[in-house]
Amino acid sequence: xxxxxxxxxxxxxxxxxxxxxxxxxxxxxxxxxxxxxxxxxxxxxxxxxxxxxxxxxxxxxxxxxxxxxxxxxxxxxxxxxxxxxxxxxxxxxxxxxxxxxxxxxxxxxxxxxxxxxxxxxxxxx
Length: 125
Prior knowledge:
Blueprint (H helix, E strand, L loop, with lengths): L6 H17 L10 H12 L4 H19 L3 H22 L8 H19 L5
């Protein structure tokens, strides 16, 4: 993950969270709305390049960890939704072959690295 996260990455996260709040009843248990939230997040990360994806996932991780203390349900919902969105992106990307260009390889690796980082994000008890 990138140490320095761009302002655009933080903006994507805030816009995704706003979208989630408009589309979901986030006061309900996160298991009831994380699938819809996943679609919201996917809309903001689907067209990113590898660097943008890793920075945006880094910004999501910061959001999750910062939100966990005040609203664990929201933090868990965003975390679970982001994991789902990344897994679906990886499923749709398929496997890396010898014929793939460097850009695609970097993007798939960024998806894998981001997913690992999100899975490790601390949400508390």
